[in-house]
Design brief:
The complex is a heterodimer of chains A (797) and B (244). By secondary structure, chain A is an alpha/beta fold. Chain A is built from 24 helices and 35 strands. In chain A, strands 29-31-30-35-28-34 form a 6-stranded mixed beta sheet. A 5-stranded parallel beta sheet of chain A has the order 3-2-1-8-9. In chain A, strands 12-13-14 form a 3-stranded parallel beta sheet, with no helix packed on it. In chain A, strand 10 and strand 11 form a beta hairpin. Helix content of chain B is 28%, strand content 19%. The chains are: A alpha/beta (797), B alpha+beta (244).
């Protein structure tokens, strides 16, 4: 989230698209309801009428996967009717930037496409720069190659009738949606987007979100109270785990994983430290070396950062197609892995294409399953279609402590790091994950020291004791190390910071090894003032009270800034665009309100300080699949063509050539999607073991329209079979008007949906995972699987 | 002192079922074995083990689809007819301080049919083994120590409210006026008669046949009391005095 949960109450129009917030983020509706009480309009756009739709002022059904058509149509509506917040767009976005002469877009493909590698050479997407290297800009937005004009040209094709024909929304619904949402383009109005997996789990997942971010920039909705781009995270700490580098392509704090051709720290730092010649660009990532070097120093405290850098593992490239989830399991299925730690996860049910995943687990020599309950992953060898005698994988189950039995922090969707104290001890000596990891690595270090091995230095030199006290994992020590210490006495701006004291904030981190910090973004979270995340003080100033800002309650990255990009909420004089809902304001000498995005006087620095040129990116030249979102069908779809180009699918999407896809395949005529219900969580390992929850949602179901039920002769409540190219599962039919057929290019297209919370182990007649149906195809930027739009059949069991 | 009252704003309910689960958790009620019957509503009905149930109802109103949610519980009638239907002293207690209607184990000695038929909302349920009759008791143990009932505590949206009757009636009137902007048919359901006052956005029978005691033609009650009978019974001062 650029904003935070409470802030939703400040919105004038809440768009929920790609999410079923009322069911999957029930607490969020405290704030959505409050916004509605204050007069906000709630819009829900979703393939299915859900408990969220039930509370919405407007609901519109769309066929899964057609979001970019609808959003692209909204961009056209904004531009055609000149509804942009012009002052904001000119000052704070790159709409005025002139793009390279070489940039081109033809029939669904951007310039630089290489069909051999299914990837783009992005050189031609660059901005034109002047002699000093500053982007050429035209504040009149008239230059034919400026972003604004390219945007107009690009979305000219997204006509109302075409959008309607491919998405299933009627013209009237589209117009009502566009009119209502774009009314937030006024200076003092704010619109917000709440999205979740309904947007991310597509082969165009990143571009779905990009498209909305562009709309938010055009309407001046980023940085303001009640605005922003808000990802509703699916787990209590998924934001935290991403911040701490759960994924392959980043190190903590979104630093880059080194590549093999970056042999030295200097080469690496030079490559990722952007240089801006514009004196008004804060270009915050110019500090990259300070953060990288402090991270290295936190891991290998006795070494210099340059030496420590050599010990970091290095990738061949940073392509999702090479290292992300789907490929890991594809390679595992090819026998390329010996072992797997499945830690707090249940891939046998959670990953797309479960049968393939379960089969891949059987190719391992060993599998360590760390969880609080037995699950389908640890017991895959006795699952459906498996013969235990033929499976060689040796499986170890490590039962661990649950969240309330250990101390530590979680970081929520709104980036609040919240410290949790420990409740009861775990039973039977079960240990917290941190203890298991600490002891495991201790043993590995012991073995490397004793027996040697290939390249032991990174492991034997690791400052592993820094996270333990007398040989026991210590959550406070970890949190302090993440914040960071001075490694020697340092004088900064006339003040001496002693060796061993905690660094006050990331502005104090150094490149020369005199500071260490496990994650620069969290530097300021645990200081000499104490554990900031443990604060529970509701005090606030009258300005802060106006927008529900609680700066002394927990702690938020970065530096306790609650609303990101908040310099864009004020004009060049520092006056809030929405005086009744001020995020920050300049009182003549300093900023008051939220922690500003840098303390410089108003108008002296560009607002988007994390971008090299300081501007919000309507044109985004960094993505794998293009600088502007373009419409493509899901890799499995019910149409042979769409109205926007002859390029049917995302040409850069991740897929495996040896796996078939159902495109207009008469065997699989219906669009399928997966989702969650309030009562279950993820693959259901925790909730399927909870009687009161399994009582409320006891079995896997498939929701379908009365029209489809009649066509297939299906009665409400009967068990039916749902099939895809990957496999089949049974499900209880819920025949409901909340599902409806869509008119797609003149043809009636049916959609069905299933929850993916179930698994064959428990409860006895609960059913299996809907991921048995979903395909191994994914987004080229993130590798996330396209589990929200695929093709199925439904038939009587 | 006019006792306690719930105000339940159905225009805000998202059917998250936090209240249904919180009720079972506080009351230590076991889960029932259920199957999916082609609906998200589960269990299917109230029972001796499920004294609070969120009911789901799809309705097309003026051509638009609505999904109506109704977290049902004992209404804690201001003058409880179920108590009038008892023969055993102390089987049903009408708590003076709160107005809570509390069933005790002595209900096992009552005629279940009489008790259930006396209820215009069809709430009481019997444990088939012990004969004890169960329903919501307003979390009287919590309320007596100043806590909110478990269902109210768990509600994220402001649907469930609880407090002094006077305050709840004021809140109900305020919310009714606000809600009418969006729901012209909005109404408070049986506010004079009960201590669980629902604000319904649409006609009560669209949510459930016995959301209101005054709804016409309830198909649920086996031996339904009509409105006149119900009022007659409640207004029978002699009967009331014998139970006071």
């Amino acid at each position: 989230m650029t904003n935070h949960w409470i802030d939703i109450q400040n919105s004038d129009c809440v768009l929920i698209m790609g999410s079923n917030a009322a069911e999957n983020h029930p607490i969020s509706f405290k704030w959505v309801t409050r916004a509605q009480e204050r007069g906000a309009t709630l819009i829900h756009v979703d393939p299915r009428f859900t408990r969220t739709s039930a509370k919405a002022d407007m609901y519109a059904g769309l066929r899964s996967g057609s979001d970019i058509a609808v959003l692209g149509g909204m961009i056209k509506y904004i531009l055609d009717n000149d509804l942009i917040f012009k002052e904001y767009v000119v000052n704070y976005t790159n709409a005025s930037f002139v793009v390279s002469k070489d940039y081109d877009f033809k029939d669904g493909l951007f310039s630089g496409y290489n069909p051999e590698t299914r990837s783009y050479d992005k050189k031609s997407w660059a901005f034109e720069t002047d002699a000093q290297g500053v982007p050429v800009q035209d504040a009149s937005l008239k230059h034919p190659r400026c972003v604004y004009q390219l945007l107009k040209q690009h979305y000219q094709r997204y006509e109302l009738d075409k959008v309607s024909a491919i998405s299933g929304l009627s013209r009237d619904e589209l117009l009502r949606l566009y009119k209502t949402y774009t009314a937030t383009g006024k200076a003092d109005k704010a619109g917000t987007i709440m999205y979740a997996m309904g947007w991310t789990q597509h082969t165009v997942g990143v571009q779905n979100i990009r498209c909305m971010a562009m709309i938010q920039l055009l309407l001046g909705n980023i940085g303001v109270a009640g605005g922003g781009v808000n990802a509703l995270r699916g787990e209590s700490n998924v934001q935290g785990s991403t911040d701490q580098c759960l994924l392959y392509h980043i190190l903590p704090g979104y630093l880059k994983t080194p590549l093999v051709d970056e042999q030295t720290l200097e080469m690496h730092n030079t490559k990722y430290t952007p240089v801006s010649k514009d004196p008004k660009s804060a270009n915050w990532w110019q500090n990259y070396p300070k953060y990288m070097n402090s991270l290295l120093k936190s891991m290998w405290q006795e070494a210099t950062p340059a030496d420590a850098y050599r010990w970091l593992p290095k990738l061949d490239n940073r392509n999702a197609s090479e290292y992300a989830w789907l490929t890991l399991f594809d390679k595992m299925d090819d026998g390329q892995f010996k072992g797997l730690f499945s830690w707090g996860m249940n891939p046998a049910c959670s990953g797309a294409n479960s049968i393939k995943t379960r089969q891949a687990l059987g190719k391992l020599d060993w599998l360590v399953n760390v969880n609080i309950f037995p699950n389908e992953t640890g017991w895959f060898w006795e699952g459906p279609g498996m013969n235990p005698k033929e499976i060689k994988t040796e499986v170890f189950f490590l039962p661990c402590a649950v969240s309330v039995e250990k101390e530590g922090s979680v970081t929520n969707s709104g980036r609040w790091m919240q410290w949790r104290y420990k409740g009861p001890d775990a039973p039977n000596g079960q240990k917290p994950d941190g203890d298991i990891m600490y002891e495991l690595m201790e043993e590995i270090r012991h073995l490397y020291t004793k027996e040697g091995g290939a390249y032991p230095e990174p492991i034997t030199n690791l400052s592993w004791d820094a996270i333990a006290t007398r040989g026991v994992f210590d959550a406070h020590k970890v949190a302090k190390l993440i914040n960071g210490y001075f490694t020697r006495d340092v004088e900064i701006k006339g003040k001496v910071y002693k060796k061993g004291t905690l660094v006050p904030s990331f502005a104090f981190l150094q490149e020369d090894g005199s500071t260490m910090s496990g994650n620069w973004l969290y530097c300021h979270s645990y200081t000499e003032k104490g554990n900031m995340a443990a604060r529970r003080d509701p005090s606030q100033t009258p300005e802060q009270a106006k927008i529900g800002l609680y700066p002394n309650w927990s702690w938020c990255w970065p530096v306790n800034r609650r609303i990101l990009y908040n310099r864009a909420s004020v004009d060049m004089q520092g006056k809030p665009y929405a005086p009744e809902k001020p995020v920050i304001q300049w009182d003549g000498a300093k900023w008051v309100g939220d922690v500003p995005d840098g303390g410089w006087a108003p108008g002296t620095k560009h607002a988007f300080i994390m971008r090299k040129h300081g501007h919000g990116q309507i044109f985004g030249p960094g993505r794998a699949d293009g600088p502007m979102p373009e419409y493509y069908e899901p890799l499995e779809c019910p149409v042979k063509s769409h109205p926007f180009s002859s390029q049917l699918h995302n040409p850069t999407a991740i897929s495996f050539d040896d796996e078939q896809k159902a495109v207009c395949d008469p065997r699989f005529p219906f669009v399928g999607t997966t989702y969650r219900v309030t009562e279950h969580w993820q693959t259901g390992v925790m909730t399927r073991n909870q009687g009161w929850l399994i009582e409320a949602e006891p079995q896997v179901f498939v929701e379908l329209s009365p029209e489809l039920a009649q066509m297939r002769g299906i009665e409400n409540g009967e068990k039916v079979m749902v099939d895809s190219l990957r496999g089949s599962i049974w499900a209880v039919a819920i025949v409901t008007k909340r599902m409806k057929p869509f008119a797609i290019q003149g043809v009636e297209v049916h959609q069905v949906g299933l929850p993916w919370h179930f698994g064959w182990t428990w409860p006895k007649d609960g059913g299996d995972s809907a991921n048995i149906l979903t395909p191994s195809v994914g987004d080229p930027n993130t590798g996330i699987p396209e589990t929200k739009a695929f093709m199925v059949n439904v038939r009587k069991a | 002192m006019d006792g306690k009252t719930f105000f339940v704003d159905l225009t805000k309910c998202t059917a998250c079922r936090g209240c249904q689960v919180a009720c079972k958790q506080w009351k230590k009620l076991p889960a029932e074995e259920t199957v999916n019957r082609g609906s998200h509503q589960n269990p299917e009905d109230l029972s001796d083990k499920t004294i609070r149930l969120v009911r789901f109802q799809e309705q097309v109103i003026d051509g638009a689809l609505h999904w109506l949610f109704f977290p049902e519980q004992c209404r804690h009638c201001v003058i409880p007819p179920c108590q009038m239907a008892t023969y055993e002293e102390g089987s049903i207690i009408h708590d003076e301080a709160t107005g809570a209607v509390i069933y005790t184990d002595l209900t096992a000695k009552e005629s279940f049919e009489d008790i259930r038929d006396s209820c215009p909302y069809n709430i009481p349920r019997q444990d088939p083994e012990t004969g004890i009759i169960y329903k919501c008791d307003m979390c009287i143990d919590r309320v007596r120590v100043g806590k909110l009932p478990a269902c109210v505590q768990s509600c994220p949206t402001g649907t469930m409210n609880f407090g002094d009757r006077e305050d709840m009636l004021k809140l109900a009137e305020k919310r009714l006026n606000e809600a009418r902007e969006k729901y012209p048919e909005a109404q408070l359901v049986d506010p004079e008669d009960v201590r669980v006052i629902y604000l319904a956005g649409f006609a009560p029978e669209l949510y459930y046949a016995t959301l209101s005691a005054y709804a016409d033609a309830s198909p649920i009650r086996r031996s339904p009391m009509n409105k006149q009978q119900f009022l007659a019974k409640m207004n029978n001062p002699a009967r009331r005095m014998t139970r006071a």
